[in-house]
Specification:
The protein has helices at residues 33-51, 65-69, 81-93, 100-116, 120-133, 138-150, 154-171, 174-190, 194-211, 214-231, 234-247, 255-268, 272-282, 289-305, 309-322, 330-343, 347-364, 367-378, 389-409. By secondary structure, it is an all-alpha fold.
Length: 426
């Protein structure tokens, strides 16, 4: 019998936010001094406002108006972040009139902008400020959890995501109940806790089916596909791939994202030729450098497994040229290229590529890429059983046909795939 999602009858208090301190000044080095100071002040203002009792906020920021006059830096920024900072300026001037949802929305807008500007500490401070400002917002708590995950603040991330799940259940916010479970699964995957990751994704999947969110059910199956790539079987991975495809719309513009990961599944289980054919069908849909870099790593391994040394070398050369623009995809792609070199017996090249991947992964706090790079450096090799050719060929043909349909429709040209690995958010 399928579990039911019910609102708790006792209406418990919201789960507590993390209480251990973080360095409030870490965001000061992420941008120019005047703007950094303004952002630090605004995040601090929101935290103080959130901690104060609603009836005692009237004189909370007395005397700050003169400081504010010297820091009108926010007006030079583009919308919507400039509008968000105006809302936070109103909080300083009229702290008893602004509402928690308004403050929360403004902080989330700043956090989203900061993430896009590669300012992770700023994004984290404002995401946490948003969650503190409105404790009824599961959305804000989930964003705070993801921001902590990005900075490898793992214990803090788990606290925020647990708060998001429980708050969403209490508020009957089923969308963010599902999305928080998906993000909890991503955190568990990053930490190598694959059983916990699988459990979180399964919970997200059945909740999405129950609540009628087919897209999130498809995303859960997609994430479960990647868990199977790491620790499961081809049979289960293929089942999740087919279910994810079935649940997505016919002209799903992010289909190349799923097709790439299906090719990765084929590569993990030794079906190198089918993987290479699927990757060749995927590449025309991708035009941005970081997208192509993500796929080129898988191409390098698949080509090596198929015995195509020249194609393997070409993929590595193209990947290295794109590395500086590949952002968070470079480390994982280089690990795949290193695994391919090891398949060809090129141990020295494999070590060099793995060492470079490890350096990038440590700098960017990518735990999964770090683990895989260290395995290559230690000489560990996986030899999973190869599934029947007829099955892998049928899966490859299914996705190649869907990619052709997408390209013919014009919906998939230049699709922006935000993440090719389990670090993707939902």
């Amino acid at each position: 019998m399928r579990p039911k999602l019910q609102r708790p009858t006792s209406a418990p208090a919201y789960p507590p936010a993390p209480v251990w301190p973080r360095d409030e000044t870490t965001l000061l080095g992420e941008t120019d001094a005047p703007l950094a100071l303004l952002l630090w002040q605004r995040a601090r203002d929101v935290r103080l406002w959130a901690l104060a009792a609603p009836g005692s906020r009237g004189g909370l920021f007395a005397g700050q108006e003169d400081v504010e006059a010297a820091l009108e830096i926010g007006e030079a920024l583009a919308e919507p972040v400039a509008a968000a900072l105006r809302t936070l300026r109103a909080l300083v001037r009229f702290p008893d009139l602004v509402t928690p949802p308004d403050v929360c929305a403004a902080c989330l807008a700043v956090a989203e902008w900061a993430e896009g500007e590669h300012m992770p500490e700023t994004a984290l401070h404002f995401a946490e400020a948003a969650a503190l400002a409105d404790p009824t917002s599961a959305h804000a708590a989930a964003v705070a959890g993801s921001a902590c995950t990005a900075l490898a603040a793992d214990q803090r991330a788990e606290v925020w995501l647990t708060r998001a799940i429980r708050t969403a259940r209490r508020m009957r916010d089923w969308e963010w109940y599902i999305r928080a479970h998906l993000r909890m699964g991503i955190l568990a995957y990053e930490l190598g806790h694959l059983t916990r990751a699988r459990r979180a994704f399964h919970r997200a999947q059945w909740a999405a089916v129950w609540a009628g969110y087919k897209t999130y059910a498809a995303k859960a199956h997609h994430d479960l596909l990647l868990v199977e790539c790491s620790c499961g079987t081809y049979d289960v991975g293929e089942r999740h791939a087919r279910l994810a495809l079935e649940l997505h719309p016919a002209r799903f513009p992010r289909l190349p994202y799923l097709a790439h990961d299906v090719a990765y599944l084929l590569t993990c289980h030794g079906a190198y030729m089918d993987a290479l054919d699927l990757l060749d069908a995927t590449l025309p849909h991708l035009v941005r450098p970081w997208e192509r870099a993500a796929v080129l790593g898988t191409v390098a391994k698949a080509a090596a497994g198929a015995g195509y040394r020249e194609r393997h070398a070409e993929a590595i050369a193209d990947l290295l040229l794109l590395e500086s623009t590949a952002d968070s995809y470079a480390a994982a792609a280089l690990v795949l290229a290193a695994e391919g070199a090891a398949l060809l017996g090129e141990e020295e090249r494999a070590r060099r590529l793995a060492a470079r991947a490890l350096e990038l992964a440590e700098r960017r706090r990518e735990r999964e890429a770090q683990r895989r790079a260290r395995r290559v450096l230690s000489g560990e090799r996986d030899q999973p059983p190869v599934p029947p050719v007829a099955r892998t060929a049928a899966l490859r043909a299914l996705f190649v046909d869907r990619l052709r349909e997408l390209r013919a429709s014009g919906d998939g040209a230049g699709v922006d795939l935000q993440q090719f690995t389990m670090s993707g958010r939902s």
